[in-house]
## 1
Amino acid sequence: MLKYLILGAGPAGLTFANYLKLHGEDSFLVLEKESVAGGLCRSEQVDGSFLDTGGGHFLDVRRPKVNEFLFKFMPEEEWNFFIRNSKIQLNKNNLIDHPIEANIWQLDTETQIQYLLSIVRAGSNMEGKEPGEFIDWIYWKLGEKIADDYMIPYNKKMFGGALNELGTYWLDKLPNVSFEETLRSCLTHKAHGAQPGHAKFYYPKKYGYGELWLRMANVIKKNIVYNAPVTEIDFNNTSVTANKISYSAQYIITTIPWNSISLLNGVPADLQKKIKLLKHTSIQVEYFSRNLNLDAHWIYYPNPELSYHRILLRHNFCANSQGYWTETNLERVSENKGFYKFINNYAYPLNTIKKPEIMIDLLSWSKSKNVIGLGRWGEHQHYNSDATVEYAMKLAEKMLC
């Protein structure tokens, strides 16, 4: 019997498997539903260069142990280093740097005053009670002008209309810029306060981001089965069915969406109901060949009249390329204007109010059956790839002890 059966050859599964391999453990098998590895971080050749089919993914520099591990497969000299340049298209005439709170100084004086007055009156600056629902929290934290002009319309485009189904427990991902820092930025004409994620990042010199994961998969190619979508997990026998073939192991490490599995045999009825409450969004990536005369790596678009919520200017981070691609919530796609599109049915886990309770119950129970959830989908957490790698390394290290 195998010791480890790993479901999914994305960043979580590949990291866990390669960490085992590097430490002398070879009793594992990875099941991957697609014909290639990489998950949401796959890349494809489009119009003479690489395009990341899962949207924008970059290697953050903030976790040196993660980078040290990943550079074993794709050495540092094969990466370009970037200082993040991301912008917000507030309206037709105002393109400013992200995050908005640190960069309203780039707007005209009258607009700056309106934003500052709105922020200083926000509940968080008036000792108001912190709300538990997403929309109310945004107004409480940032004031009505930032909420109305940017945060609410942008998040509706990205996550869908029912924003108050979202909790607030995950909002530490937002840059925490205080009113004092915003004011200081306006006075000094320089951004102050916390920087967003990927403030500094790596991107491959000659490839798309997916190249890294292809190399990791190649190291363990004898331990991967492709075109093997999982249809059943049997918790009573610690086994999995994929393509009508049954696989058994001492431990199952699942990195795939819980609600993508047709049959979860042995899961109590109450947990089955909770799993059905887990929500996610789907996105379409669409490529356009013309270059935009801008130096940004990516731009956020809150304008509800535009279907997409973000564009990534490929020619500004991917060498010898042209064009850009858009990211659009699949519910907002009305027509296709580019000549390439890719649909990701599982793009972002939604951080709904009840999700933490659901996942605590589910992961605790499944662990008691030697089935362990890992990564963005195994834990239903909006992890970036570097965070996913870190947690996968820690889990593998713990299980090897």
## 2
Amino acid sequence: MERKKTIFSGIQPSGEITLGNYLGAISNWVKIQNEYNCVYCVVDMHAITVRHDPKRLREQTLDVLALLIACGLDPEKNIIFIQSHVPQHAELTWILNCYTMYGELSRMTQFKDKSAKNPDNINAGLFDYPVLMAADILLYQTDLVPVGEDQKQHLELSRNIAQRFNFLYGDVFTLPEPYIPKIGGRVMSLTDPDMKMSKSDPNPNSKILLLDEPEAIMRKFRRAVTDSEAVVAYREGKSGINNLMAIYSAATSKDYKTIEAEFSGRGYGDFKTATGESVVELLSPVRTKFNELIKNKDYLTRVYTDNAGRAAALADRTLEKVRKKVGFVKKENKNA
């Protein structure tokens, strides 16, 4: 029987997962959870490269964990864990630092962007976090990594580090490939439809959050940018309507021709209302499930503890090979 491929993805614990994250990624993860060995990590170690509120970080980490489960990811079928609970990530990062060139890290565009945004806190972790990202991926002998345009450079660095290590020591790391889902795409900002919907956008009307109340969702869609043509049709030059049609299509499973026929002769107000209602209906069970889960701290603790153990067992297999290859003396288990 053919070996199941492993997919790895790290999720920032911002607590604000958007409709774009859901339609473009998470809903697809739910569909493939029987097809692949899926490892999903709430990357709280990445989150501390910028100044943050520790209390809020703890809350947001649990929020993201609960949201992933509420979206339909089964913690029995997938490994869903908190990064800092598996110290092998930090250990492999240090080792891989010694096989990563300074020039490679200095060319990372996200480091330049984040440094510009945080000029008073350009710390070593901010510079080095692509190596932690490489360790995240390589620890699990990952075959496939879901990546957007902004992460392709990091995946390429992970491959370069793995190839360099493998050249020196043999076949240690699997070379990860980008994963492009069969369905799903980019959901754009509601206020600037030429830009991707982003949780970091300071304008709250630009994005739909999974935990938004129905009233907020409807209000944001009513304010969504369109055009002056007042024709619901998918074509070039209509980025606002194209975006709303893509969202409506994803929420209702209707194709563009069906949508165009449904709203023929009707104004944008009707279409915005229908799109908002379809998203409210889509997200309602997610929000209901999340509210149940976030109150059940015993269940969440059991999930992240058990899953960290499963992740650590996989990570140890890789790390044992790495330790041996670089010449570390094997640590004996005195309890054995």
## 3
Amino acid sequence: MKETAPAQRSATPLSDSLLKAVSRSFYLSMRFLPGPMRRGIALGYLLARATDSVADTSTAASERREAVLLAMGRSIAAPEPVENEADLLADLAGAMAGAQEKAAEAELLRRFGDCLSVLRSLPDGEAALVRQVLHSIIEGQLWDITYFREHDSVSGDEQTQRYTYSVAGCVGEFWTRLGVLTLGDAFCDLSRAELMVEAGIRYGRGLQLINILRDRGEDARRGRRYLCSDPVRWMDRAERYLRDGLDYSCRLHRFSLRFASMLPALIGLKTLRLIRTSPAGHRVKIPRRAVYASMLRAAWTSFTAKLCR
């Protein structure tokens, strides 16, 4: 197995302040993770957020976004710099970064090469898991671009399920497998590891369904309908998946893991309650005080879960 110098092991491609700027909610969870997990989780998130920024660059033609995503995927998959990688990095740092509305996302694209360097310095097992999850995410992003070039709605529930796995369910799987790899039985009961993987997939799908349900009015106006059946059924499914996420979180073996894992589910359930009671197509956002209340509840539930184990 490849060994990495201590300085490389602790390297981070971006400062905490920029990671926080890219996603406040992710940063809230990530900062509580145990050190051995934090590097891979943070790097996977940053790479996925970079590809997502390219996929969502509305000023670029879909064919151009598709080509850039494919090039990013080739570089992520490679243990060494690939042919034309310098051209990709220049494009990301130039035209693509310049097209971003948010300064933090522009900076992330400019630092994509740093992210690749950190990925290539990871131990083999961690790097393989990061590459696996990014392959799935980019596959989902490419499907989104190419499918909605010709269609304005999914054709069935199975497409929705496949999409939610590609861009989010796979993240629950990645989170679990990385935890088992880096923490062993300090992460969870290893005899239940595959059941935890399945629960993590459902949890990730539930979080993505919250995004779809919250944004469905705006997406429909853009010619993108990710649901073709009764939204209430999907609200019910999202709630089941998020409650699976709470159960998943309670089965983790460290307070910090339970807290970091539980917080998105609690915020998601609060968001879902607003979605259920708001007019169809109205985009909701929970207030900051509700986020703080979720943090307190996550802390208390994570502590009492230990007492019940």
## 4
Amino acid sequence: MDRPRVLCINPWIYDFSAYDYFSKPIGLLYIAAYLRARGARVDFIDCLDKYHPELLQRQGRERPKIRKYGTGPWHREVVPTPTPVAFIPRRYARYGLPEDIFRRELQRCGTPDAVLVTSFMTYWYPGPRRVVEMVRQVFPGVPVILGGIYATLMPDHARRVIQPDALIQGPGEVPVAQLLADWLHCPSLAESPPEDIDDYPYPAFDLYRKLDYLVVMTSRGCPFRCTFCATYTIDSRFTQRRPDKVVEEILTQTRRFRVRDVAFYDDALLMQPERRIKPILWELLRHRHRLRFHTPNGLHGRFIDEEMAYLLYANHFRTIRISLESVAGERRRDIHNKITPGEMTRAVQNLIKAGYQPKDIETYIMMGLPSQSIEEVVETMLYAHSLGVLIRLAAFSPIPGTVDYQRAVENGYFPSQADPLLTNKTIGPLFRTREAYERFHRVNQLAHMLNEGAKRGVSLFRPAAFRNALQAALEDLARDHETHGPEVSRKFPVSGR
């Protein structure tokens, strides 16, 4: 076969809510670029394409809703709520292109030699399932390869429910190329695989109609082994790129696509700062760029010294999110002890000294971990609020393969053979009742109240009215505990001990 034709598809999201917050299928785009560099012809359909002309025409718009830094909502269509999560008092929806537009996109592409479908959250599997169903209707007999996070973490479920012709776990460039080389009798696809991470071509962002932002990875994997995180399962190796190659990619790609906003996808962006991120930021600063940078994944505040804080501010980092998770000593030691409250305070102070306002800084706080009490969550929220920073509650999702998933199963919080839909963080996965959902919602309301105060420079530790409002909210939570006593004491203990 001369030039095999490969169709890459980024599927829909099915969920109670979804938002384009620097969301791009970077793994699939790396694979597309890798195959194309070896001679394959690559087509691409993004079911989350906000710029599709038929979609815009249907919406009566010239351009999609684009909000801060190129982020914004996807097109949304309400669909029936799956039975396992029907107790949640919210509408379930499909996010992305209407199905008829997607079907016409498939037909326009023509019959490929193979189709690659990626996947993300385990509880988003209805998206790739429906994509594969429609692909087989339009292209009967064409082999389908499934990869991505869901495929990696739940391969048995994916093989049973989606039934791909092949399933790839972990990073996919080389395995996909080798598989296609065998299937399509095209040995050139598998020749001379890269030995270094910097030998891979840049992700194929040119396959998009238009970009509002760019995403970049300076490393793959993560050296930490947090009990709730599956990064080390998805990619067991922590590999880092050369600083000069990262800078070259950022400057080249932002000029090519004429974008100002760049989001780092690293799970450990600040690790080994003297060897990697600081040289990257010093070199970027030397180019006097007008770019804006974002870190949607949590930063390790332990590494934010005065120099790091200066570099972040001088390079126009607009989205700063620090992983605090919990101030409870036992919890921190159990998770991985990535940061202490003292280190968090020092990181915030360094960022403020560099020029940030406290309200410019956000912190991730975990909620809903196995045996985690509301008091622990609220204590951590109050600590973060005392620093003046904004709170982002990160609801726990029991991810297969993680320590906390196994604990949840062993302790009776989560069924061992549960439908992946039940891992959805929105539903309070360890509790799975409407009452529990409403309790979590109340904690979210408290976080919202604290954040609204922080944005206005108001602290509950000063004005009496704000402090009284907090006290009322906490008393409300306590009454809720009393009302749901037996269930709460077993599933969501008040004391945490």
